[in-house]
Amino acid sequence: MKNIKILGMGCAKCVKLAETAKEAAETMGIEYHLEKITDIKDIMAYGVMVTPALVVDEKVIFAGKLPSIDEIKKVLA
Fold first, then answer.
1. Contact at 8 Å (CB) between 13 and 66?
2. Tens digit of pLDDT for each residue in 2-48?
3. DSSP secondary structure, 30-63, as one string
4. CA-to-CA distance for 10 and 75, rounded, in angstroms?
């Protein structure tokens, strides 16, 4: 099971990243748990200064960008 976290305060890009990550995981047929982290202290604990950010299995993969579904699938594979 993949643990996916979206770090961000809830802006449009953060919402889009959550939707894209969910779609990527579901089209790949993998088990996942998606969590949205909105508290600034929790976000900064990951060393992220620019959102949105994608964390997979506690590793920051993307920060400050909105990756494509294909980019996310590569990370989840």
1. yes
2. 999 999 998 999 999 999 999 999 999 999 999 999 999 999 999 99
3. --EEEEEE--HHHHHHTT--SS-EEEETTEEEEE
4. 23
So which residues are the catalytic ones?
11, 14
Domains of the chain: 2-76 (3.40.30.10)
Which pLDDT does position 38 carry in this prediction?
96
- Taking the C-alpha atoms of residue 30 and residue 28, their distance in angstroms, rounded to an integer, is 6
Q: Which of 41, 40, 44, 52 is nearest to 11 (CA)?
A: 52
DSSP classification of residue 29: T
Say how far apart CA 3 and CA 31 lie, in whole Å.
9
The candidate with the shortest Cα–Cα distance to 60, out of 8, 1, 12, is 8
